[in-house]
Amino acid sequence: MSSDYKTPKRHASSKAVDLITGKEKVEYFFDPALLIPEQTLRTPKRNDSSQSLSILSHKHLFSPCTIVKKDESHTLTKTSDGTLYKLASDEMTQLTAEDRQGLEDVLHLPNISEPSLLHTLRVRYHRDEIYTNAGPILISVNPYKTIMKQNSSIYSDSVMAAYRKNRCSAPHLFTIADRAYNALLTKNKNQSIIISGESGAGKTEATKIIMQYLAKTSHTRNTSQLEQQVLSSSPLLESFGNARTLRNDNSSRFGKFIQIKFQNGHISGATIRNYLLEKTRIVQQIEGERNYHIFYQILSDQILSEELGLHDAEGLNYLSKKYVKSKRDEKGLEETRECLKNIGLDDDDVKVIFQVVVGVLHLGNVSFIVAGENEKVSIADGESQRSLEMGCKMLGMDANEVSKAILTKALNVGGKTITQDQNVAQATDKRDALAKLVYSSLFLWLVSRINATIDRVHSPDDILSPSSTFSFDFNDSDGLSSIGVLDIYGFEQFDVNGFEQLLINYANEKLQRHFNKHLFEVEQELYSHEGVDWTYITFNDNKACLDLIEGGSGSVGILGTLDDAWSGMGSGNEKDVKFVSQLHQFFGGVQETSASVKKIKGKSEGRHDNFRMPKFANDKDFIVIHYAGEVRYTAHGFVEKNVESLSNEMKSLGMTSSSELCRDIFTYFSDEISNVDNSSSNRTRSTIRGVSIASQFKASLQNLVGDLEETEPHYVRCIKPNLKKTSNDFDAGEVLRQLRYAGMLEAIRIRREGYALREPHESFYNKFHILFDSADLKEGEGIEHLVKVLSKRLSVTSIDWQIGHSKIFLRRELAAKLNALMSLRIRSAARTLGRFGRRVAHRSAGSFITSWARFRLHMRQKYKALRASIKIQSLYRQWNQRKTYEICIQAIITIQSNIRMALAMKALKRLIDPYRDMTYIEVRELYRAEEQCLEYAVATKDYELAAEIEKNIVPLKEALEKKRPLSRALIEKMINDIEAELKEALAKKRYNDCPPLQQKLDELHEKRKYYPTVDELRQMVSQAEQAVDEAAAKRNFTGAAERQINVEKAKRRLAEAIAAEKESDEELSIPIQPELNMFSNRVELEEKIREIKADIEKAIQSKKFNVASSLQEELNDLETRRADFPTVLELEQRCRSKESEMAKAIAKKDYSQAASLQEDIDSLQEWIKREKSVRENQLNENNDFSSTDNCVSATLPNGVILQFYCRTELDFAISEYVAKIDKLAMHKNFTDAKQNQDIVNQLEILRPLLPTIQDLEEAEKKLSSDLQNAIKAKDYGKAENLQIQIQDVKTKISLESHTNNSLNSKITNVNGTKETVKKPIAKLSQHNTNMIDKHNETKRDYKTVLRLRPKKPLVSNAQDSVLTVAQMLANKRSSASIVVGADGNLAGIITDTDITRRLVARDLNASKTNVTKIMTSNPTVVSVDDPAMEALGIMVENHFRHLPVVDDRGSVVGVLDIAKCLNDAISKLERAEEQKNSAAEDVVKQMAAMQGAGGQQAAMLTQLLAPLMAQA
């Protein structure tokens, strides 16, 4: 490993400057150890433990401060925040420029020490630079946040690439990973990266980042899957081996060493070794901490936890009492499942893994009681027994065997087996030991399974075999090399330190010795490279502390003593006391006597330098002096934790499991014990307990260190900045404590013991060459001469400094002397320069005064001449500027006139052609908009607006024709059209029209020459491209470039031609829709239908049958749109249907469908409100008697509008509805009766709005009187108005009288008796079946529908296609067919008109279109017993060509055809009397021509056909 680091450049910005004086400040590191207490001025003791804690907790620890005042008794200092402190001494370390700068490598600091190291980390941390080098060591400070640089993460792929290509050299985890990878490739030596630190310092994340970098760097297509498997192993181990602690939410509770194997620079496999899984956490956690993540991940899945028997999460004894379900656990469970599948486990194996985990939780709920006279321990009944059975079921064990193994213990004494009962405490310990055995075996099995997946060197069978002796091999014979990543726990010291802390600190002690040894070797390598003597430098060897812990040099060690403490009788507490007393005896200089424990006076052979006995409470406490400081251990449960209470029966329980996978898992516990037993020492052990935890850990740690010795190590020290896990909070005391625990100060000590300061020759010479005298300079120059002169001047030898090949090495004391000597030389030079400067200043002052006087005299003459020249210059400039100004004015006038002329010409062109600046598309859209406005104006009869629009359309159309893009196809079409017009003009002998048409035709023929066809243009493009290819083939690139221009031109013409044809096609394919959204409700639609019907009547009366035919088509279209505007009754029926569906959905608990239905109901109710509001407004408008037409109207619930022009019509309508109500009440049809009663109430409101005949006669008399008075008063204007009003009243009186007579004649029969009002034909609604109300008249004196001879119906199914129905109608030569639904009821009727309008017009596929999409749903039907005239009236009023006929049972028995009925009626009329024949024939033929009519025509038809039907 190279240790030749470049010295950073010094920047002027690193100086501290006083903002007030502007002078450079002298700053020092604030040392709280020098503080003077408020009570006394004496210096506190530095070695007091409480004082040491207070120093580390001081908020200004080693922060910059300045000296305010200094006297003999104390020194007053001020920190950066203005706080004042009194110090007992001014012996503080001064800050250098490098300290303020925050160097990337702390070894480049000139005075490296604890304060400078801490302050450098503080400065870099606040700059979000969390990585700092300490020579070959990387210090990583956890930021507790995501750091972004230039809007990108510092761990992004681009940053990885920059470090891989050596474009970035800043400290980073990528630097360590890249350094190890490069050393692996160049030196052909295995590498290792050792990551250590406390919980929460970021070790796990650092391991992930390094592995990601190695995977990314060595990535190939063949190894991508392997790299993904290596990276995915970390989340799986985190789920089973990480837990939330007070210091970290994802703390690794085990150590792991990942060996990534490379072949030819690419990852070829990996293996993982784990160390010291914290088994105590499985059965017990302190308050505020959690068990391993996997337990809570399973509980986050409610279905899985209930399937495994976990119903109450808070009732599990092995988990913290407060369980809070989180999204993080749910996501972790999914990731765990995915990782388990990645290592080759199927769903059944994953389920077994989860069962083993849950079985541990069930075992934790097993409790014990003492029952019976003999006080025998047994398992409590109820929940405890069920937990045992469920736990054994999960593990595949026999509950009785497990209960027997926990409650008893089998001892082999003298060849006989003796069964001994256990007490409650012993049974509880054995239960916990079994739970820890199960979980630790599962963890070992998972590690082995992962190794089998990611190791491509060894076969999976070798790795997965329980008897396999597979281990790491750093010297692989297959040509493989490896990089090992060690994620190990850091040094720990708490208020109470237990067995786990002893093993963790033992591991750190072992690794620290390896670290010190390696660092010392790096220093030796540097000195040897520079040619410097290093024989006197030593490193701090902590072998004595290791011997104390693990034994050696004739000592059994603490761990060996702990193993021996298990033997003998007694409780666990007594064995702990015995263990500590033995430690005091072996290592503390204490001897055991029969009476008491006495301390041996003086130094004895049993006393160890790294062992201390506490002064108080020493029965269970002992102190070990580690490299990082003293740690006091409390031996509470040491012996029980070291040797788990597992009898042979419990060890063999796992092999009796009914699950093969469980048996495979349990083999790993016995395998671990046997492997460690083979590798441990040969000391005799007790056969009762097997191998202890300490022995296992010691053996695995020795193997780890042995493996590391064979590699080139790289170190990462992870530091957490505070205990609160918050960002931007740097706790200096906490960081300093961790630096001490990490052994960083040992690196500083090695630097201090050697030559702490080292600087390149050039830098050192430039800095200290000012110490040369003039005589020294004459003798020579260079670094050797400088060292010789300074050594003689300071009386030092070569021991204090040495000159290397490129650097000079100095001791700290000599560097301080040189700095002081240089400071004195600078001060002396400054005083000399000051004296010389003052002498020069005096001489310069006299010379300056004389020169100034002469200068003033000369300047007075010069100023006079200057003023004259300025006057002349100003006059010239004035004339010149005026001339320029006049030229500019003339130019501006010329420019303005030209601009005005251009604007006028542009305006003139715009007046001539207002559409000049518009494109063809814009003109076309404008033309379409104007046409739509014209259609709307015509539809609304706004002819004035229509005329104005028509005037604007003419120039717009001309502009459209001018701007139309032309193509060959379009010109051909225009030529054909003009030729057709020309032929037509010749045929009709319109010779005046022929010359302009011929001229236009000639112009188009001329234009056709310049517009090739699309195929010709494509050929031109092809030829141009071929010419380019030929030129390129001949290497004529200039000609190819010129021909490429021709290609672009040809392509552009082709694109324009295609666009023109496409534009023409779009114009032809887009029809203009004049009225898209004309209606907003049913009322407006019915009003429009009524207006068109009136227009049709007027057209027929005027004999304008063409107009009537076009109006009839528009009427048919509007009637088809009735389905889009349902009536209020239909809306209310839909609403009730939706409410019924919503109730069913709620009953089925389908709340999503219920919510959707509720939204539909709300929209329907809003629609109903709008329709009712529109009807009320329409009613209010129509009820105004003062309107011009004197008409009132009422809108029925079905949307039909009734209009009344006189009081007689209204009274007659009310009487008809009253008669209907009586008949409906007689037949107990109260629903329809209520609806008719509402109509009556609505009509009764209209009565006051229409005057009676008496009211009109009285109004006529009053108006006549007023007319006579106006004539007498000669007020002819008023008289004219009154005459108009009188005529209006007379017209109303005549209308009333005529209507009264007409109605009386309508309801009176030939004999003069009144007819009973028939019940109207019932129409089927959407939710009714094809049944109509049966009504039996006591006397029928009318002709029924059967007399109209209805046709036999053709029946189709609702599932049939339109093509099938059309073929059936063609075969049967029929024009209509009824459609039957799946329930057998009438669903609709389909006619040839429906097929034409709704299928052919829409261009639908007849074979794929269902008949229900175009049929008329829920058609109106009539009964066989209904009057024939009423059926004919329904067909005429509603324009029905066909009408289904049903019998008394509701079955369809026929279909009425209006054409057949009218044909039969005409035949009968031809045979009638000649007088009646003329009138009847005219009326009926008019009816047939208009295909139906309004209410008056229906009435006329009824009057005409009634006698005929009576005769028939």
- Overall spatial form: extended
Kindly report how far apart the N and C termini lie.
125 Å
How many runs of DSSP E, i.e. beta strands?
Answer: 34
Unreliable runs: 1-13, 39-48, 459-472, 592-604, 673-690, 1068-1077, 1182-1189, 1305-1340, 1487-1498
Proportion of beta-strand residues: 5-15%
Radius of gyration: 55 Å
Count of helix runs: 50
Fraction of helical residues = 55-70%
Give the strand order, joined by hyphens, for the main sheet: 5-6-22-7-16-10-11
Could you say which structural class the secondary elements and strand pairing correspond to? alpha+beta
Q: Roughly what is the average pLDDT, rounded to an integer?
A: 77
Major sheet summary line: 7 strands, mixed
Describe this structure in words.
The chain has 1512 residues and is of the alpha+beta class. Helix content is 55%, strand content 11%. The protein is built from 50 helices and 34 strands. Strands 5-6-22-7-16-10-11 form a seven-stranded mixed β-sheet, sandwiched between helices. It has a four-stranded antiparallel β-sheet with strand order 1-2-3-4. Strand 17 (590-592) and strand 18 form a beta hairpin. Helix 12 runs antiparallel to helix 13 (383-395), helix 48 (1458-1470) packs antiparallel against helix 49 (1474-1490) and helix 49 crosses helix 50. The longest helix has 101 residues, at 812-912. The termini are far apart. The N terminus is likely disordered.
